[in-house]
Amino acid sequence: MSIDFRKLTGDLRMLIGQLKQRCIEAEARAKDLQRQLDEQQEKCRQLEQEKAELDRKYQYLRSGLAASGNDPEQVERLKKQYLAMVSEIDACIQTLQHG
Fold it and tell me: Fewer CB within 10 Å: N-end or C-end of the chain?
């Protein structure tokens, strides 16, 4: 029973080469996933800023309309429009966070 060290060494080198290639591919995939995550987080930050701005504008509008005594139906319509916009932004944020 003889052991062929050259064959075993060659096999070992081949396996090491495969392992290195897998590591390179895994690192590239990790970098790509990190880039995607960073992009999604930036989109979330932008949407959160837009939501905060819309909330602020909605509060100003709401307080202004209440103070001016405008038509209650008009106030209710505007309130529904702003709430719909805020809900849409919330849904976008939710989608980005889970996407």
Answer: N
Tens of pLDDT, residue by residue over 1-48, are 688 889 999 999 999 999 999 999 999 999 999 999 999 999 999 999
DSSP 48-84: HHHHHHHHHHHHHHHHHHHHHT--HHHHHHHHHHHHH
Q: What is the pTM of this model?
A: 0.50
Q: Is the alpha carbon torsion for 35, 41, 44, 45 positive or negative?
A: negative
User: Which DSSP string corresponds to 14-27?
Assistant: HHHHHHHHHHHHHH
**DSSP at 99:** -
